[in-house]
Automatic annotation (TrEMBL):
Keywords: Disulfide bond, Immunoglobulin domain, Membrane, Signal, Transmembrane, Transmembrane helix. SMART domains: IG (SM00409). This is Prostaglandin F2 receptor inhibitor. Coiled coil: none annotated. One of its GO terms (cellular component) is membrane. The chain crosses the membrane at residues 679-700. Residues 1-115, 126-223, 254-383, 536-644 form the Ig-like domain.
Length: 727
């Protein structure tokens, strides 16, 4: 018998076995299939009445897909459900007869087999095709795709369909996104914008409404065929996936134009400026289109220069204003205002326009499209023509003249000078004045040469700048005599005040919001203070009897002041002494202040990290000694002193002389090798001696008490030898 079945079908085969033996025998029935050239057991009914599945058929036997049933007239039925390709082949029935012996063991008497049928399993053909190949749709339209299923399956079966989406045509099912599915019971998974319908028995329609640009990609259909089993369950016999279909969603760009005009243009500085950016001739701008604006500024440069545009401000999709670097502070102060006057109009207003605002302005209108997930994506940018903001101006001019009121004066008197200011092309100016002094390069207090002394701003507020003489805090005065005239006084002038004095004037014009705007700067002619004196000349030197010392020793450094010219009494002169050190062989590092002694005898020391200590004292009117106690290796370096002489004049006023710096002397600190190793050697020898004595003591005690043994000598019997004659 020959059977031709489809994959998933069921079939039955019958085998009859009758015995004619007079003995009480039992039959053993086995169904077998021919796999290649060998027969393989499927299922047996043993002579002991037990069912025994063959190798590889245990799972199918437990599921009920393979059964062996007995019937009338000694028939044995093999039932196979859910047939697959492995079930194809020749089937035979193998029957053996068994008898129980006297020792209760079973013995096979005879065995016979017969081929029952030849079964051919034909695979189920399934073809899954999407009706269209490549699709192009416009944004916000609907995408309609149909999946056609063709199979040679007859009888009862159900199809299961799933639609997938992927960005690449080579993605597998596990990598793709499941859009919708319809199971074999025609139950469709839930979705808002996507629907799946069963058009006819072999067609399944996918409809995507309101498509977006993000829907561009590859769509494919996956189908499976299910057949029912005898126990009411379903079995998947075949599944296929269609070729991907390319879908391109074309963005729907709105059509509009942008027009920029100036409703207010400045004629002079500090006038307001207002620009309006309007959207005109807009088309295809529905509710899901939103417009934002970006403002740009382009300075007016020469033709050979590269013009770069600067972002003033921009809006994101949520209409949040994002400021650029230019004008950020002015916008936060309210000097620049960005607003939206109407649905199609954006405004830029500069409350008080300055010369730095002159240039070209333009706006860019951006269109944003809303996607299905309520996110906004920029779809188009349209730029306007530029509008020029410019007015003719004349250059500001500022002239400053300094006049010395007293042509001749001596130290201790008052120095006085005036600064007269004149300006042109500045509307209602105000002036701020700064007095500076250019000291000689020999002045150690100000190595840069220029000192800012006192200033007066445009609101007539006076401020001391770099004036650090605490004894003369009120010694300098700057006042406003007239709108364009200022007077500077310095009381009780000293020798150290010699130098060139100037007036630095800044003209300010009123800006918007009560603010002042800097217009132009001017510098006056210098006024020189030069003291003609025949007083003493001081020199300073550093001396040490032993510039090379060992660690832990005392270092003595002397700062010696010598005087030439006119002799002074010790009570008429005093000195400020400061000691410095440069921790290098060459003077290539910053000096470190060690200690200072002012003319009142007050000593100040800087903080030190090491264990060494300092002392500074005056040992004579012209000699000052610095001692370093317990020198360490980090105390080496070039050491020098800086002396500031103070001389009392005939009027009793103390005059400060310029600072004098001594030539450095190098202090070398060496290590005392003998002292460094003396204590470690003594400690080592002491420890070795103690350990040796302790070892001897332990050995003696061990041998005396712990390791002593009683040695019992064997007593020997002493006998005399007898002479041979006695024998």
């Amino acid at each position: 018998m020959s059977l031709r079945l489809s994959e998933g079908d069921s079939f039955k085969l019958r085998c009859s076995a009758v015995t004619t033996s007079l003995e009480h025998t039992h039959l053993h029935v086995t169904w077998q299939i021919k796999s290649g050239s060998t027969w393989q057991d499927i299922l047996s009914l043993t002579h002991e009445g037990k069912f025994q599945p063959g190798p590889g058929y245990e799972e199918r036997y437990r599921n009920g897909d393979i059964r062996l049933d007995t019937g009338a007239n000694d028939t044995y039925w093999l039932s196979v459900s859910q047939a697959s390709s492995v079930d194809g082949g020749a089937y035979r029935c193998l029957v053996s007869e068994w008898v129980r012996g006297a020792d209760s063991t079973w013995q096979k008497i005879q065995e016979k087999s017969v081929e029952i049928a030849s079964v051919a399993i034909q695979r189920t053909a399934l073809d899954v095709v999407i009706s269209t190949s490549n699709v192009s749709v416009t944004e916000r339209d609907s995408l309609d795709l149909t999946c056609n299923i063709t199979t040679d399956r007859s009888g009862v079966f159900q199809a299961e369909v799933m639609w997938y989406f992927s960005m690449s045509p080579d993605d597998t099912l596990s990598d793709a996104q499941v859009l919708l599915s319809m199971d074999r019971d025609s139950v469709v998974s839930d979705s808002t914008l996507i629907s799946l319908s069963h058009v006819d028995r072999n067609s399944y329609r996918l409809l995507v409404r309101d498509v977006d640009v993000e829907d561009s990609g590859y769509y494919f259909c996956h189908a499976a065929v299910w057949v029912p089993l005898h126990n009411g369950s379903w079995h998947k016999v075949v599944e296929r996936t269609s070729a991907p279909v390319s879908v391109v969603v074309t963005a729907l760009e709105p059509d509009y134009e942008v027009f920029l005009n100036a409703s207010k243009t400045p004629k002079f500085s500090d006038d307001p400026t207002e620009l309006n950016c309007r959207i005109t001739n807009s088309q295809d701008t529905k509710a899901n289109i939103r417009f934002t604006v970006s403002w740009y500024y382009r300075p007016r440069l020469r033709s050979d220069d590269v013009v770069t545009e600067e972002l003033l401000a921009t809006m994101d999709a949520d209409w949040t204003l994002l400021l650029g670097d230019r004008g950020r502070e002015r916008t936060q102060n309210g000097e620049i205002i960005f607003s939206k006057k109407a649905v199609d109009t954006f405004s830029l207003r500069i409350q008080w326009t300055s010369e730095s605002d002159r240039g070209d302005y333009f706006c860019v209108i951006s269109a944003w499209s809303r996607h299905r997930n309520n996110s906004w994506v920029k779809s188009k940018d349209v730029s306007s023509a530029s509008v020029s903001i410019f007015w003719a101006t004349q250059d500001y001019t500022l002239t400053v003249e300094a006049v010395k009121l007293k042509p001749f004066f001596v130290a201790g008197h008052t120095f006085e000078m005036t600064c007269k200011v004149s300006s042109k092309n500045i509307k209602t100016p105000r002036y701020s004045v700064l007095i500076t002094a250019e000291k000689p390069l020999t002045d150690q207090s100000n190595p840069n040469g220029t000192t800012r002394i006192i200033s007066l701003n445009q609101d007539s507020v006076v401020r001391l700048e770099d004036w650090t003489d605490q004894t003369r805090v009120d010694g300098v005065v700057l006042e406003k005599v007239q709108e364009n005239e200022f007077r500077y006084r310095m009381y009780q002038t000293q020798i150290s005040d010699a130098g060139l004095y100037r007036c630095v004037v800044t003209a300010w014009s009123p800006g918007g919001g009560g603010m002042w705007r800097e217009a132009v700067n001017g510098l006056s002619n210098p006024i020189q203070i030069d003291f003609q004196t025949s007083g003493p000349v001081f020199n300073v030197s550093v001396h040490s009897d032993s510039p090379t010392i060992y660690q832990g020793e005392l270092a003595d450094l002397l700062c010696i002041v010598t005087m030439e010219g006119m002799a002074l009494e010790p009570d008429d002169m005093s000195f400020d002494v400061s000691w410095f050190a440069v921790r290098s062989f060459a003077l290539d590092r910053e000096p470190i202040l060690l200690a200072s002694l002012d003319r009142r005898g007050i000593v100040m020391q800087s903080r030190r990290n090491g264990s060494s200590d300092l002392s500074l004292e005056r040992i004579s009117p012209l000699e000052f000694r610095l001692r370093v106690h317990g020198c360490e290796d980090h105390d080496f370096g070039n050491h020098y002193c800086v002396v500031t002489p103070w001389v009392r004049s005939a009027t009793g006023v103390w005059q400060r002389e310029p600072d004098i710096k001594a030539k450095p002397i190098f202090l070398s600190v060496k290590m005392d090798v003998l002292n460094a190793f003396k204590y470690p050697l003594l400690i080592g020898i002491g420890l070795a001696t103690v350990i040796g004595l302790l070892s001897c003591l332990i050995g003696y005690c061990s041998s005396r008490w712990c390791c002593k043994k009683e040695v019992q000598e064997t007593r020997r019997e002493r006998r005399r030898l007898m002479s041979m004659e006695m024998d």
